[in-house]
TrEMBL record:
It comes from Halopiger xanaduensis (strain DSM 18323 / JCM 14033 / SH-6). Keywords: DNA-binding, Transcription, Transcription regulation. GO terms for molecular function: DNA binding. CDD domains: RHH_NikR_HicB-like (cd22231). Pfam families: NikR_C. This is Transcriptional regulator NikR, CopG family. The lineage of its organism: Archaea, Methanobacteriati, Methanobacteriota, Stenosarchaea group, Halobacteria. Residues 55-125 form the Transcription factor NikR nickel binding C-terminal domain. Signal peptide: none annotated. InterPro entries: Acetolactate_synth/TF_NikR_C (IPR027271), ACT-like_dom_sf (IPR045865), Arc_rbn_hlx_hlx (IPR013321), CopG/NikR_regulator (IPR050192), Ribbon_hlx_hlx (IPR010985), TF_NikR_Ni-bd_C (IPR014864). GO terms for biological process: regulation of DNA-templated transcription.
Length: 129
């Protein structure tokens, strides 16, 4: 589908610089990717049904909650596919890759938020089917 847009010159210039630096073959390809990212960023997990692929990232105080977090990850092993773990000062940072029913992944993310020792939980929806 062809469309036209009114875009400020400075924004278009910066956009052109970026898609060319990234080696994309055209402005149209850059616009499609930007639109896809915009839709993904504004799709709320609560509005998604069916199977999804998502990343859940969170940070926490290790001493206070590690055993509980391991228990939850085991409880949700039907949707947890991979985890990574690193340290930032006194805090642990964890990234959990998930695939499966949106309802299960939602529940997993909400359960992580239940702990006072978990500072923040961020979810990135990568694909919904």
């Amino acid at each position: 589908m062809r469309t036209s847009l009114n875009v400020p010159d400075d924004l278009l210039s910066r956009f052109d610089d970026i898609w060319q630096e990234q080696g994309l073959e055209s402005r149209s390809r850059g616009v499609r990717e930007a639109m896809r990212e915009y839709v993904e960023a504004h799709t709320r997990l609560e509005d998604v049904d069916g199977d999804i692929v998502a990343i859940v990232a969170f940070d926490y105080d290790h001493e206070s909650v590690i055993e509980d977090l391991h228990d939850i990850q085991h409880e949700f092993q039907d949707v947890v596919t991979t985890t990574t773990h690193t340290h930032e000062g006194e805090w642990c940072l964890e990234t959990v890759f998930c695939r499966g029913a949106a309802e299960r992944i939602r529940t997993f993310a909400y359960r992580l938020r239940d702990f006072d020792a978990v500072r923040r939980v961020k979810l990135l929806l990568l694909a919904d089917r």
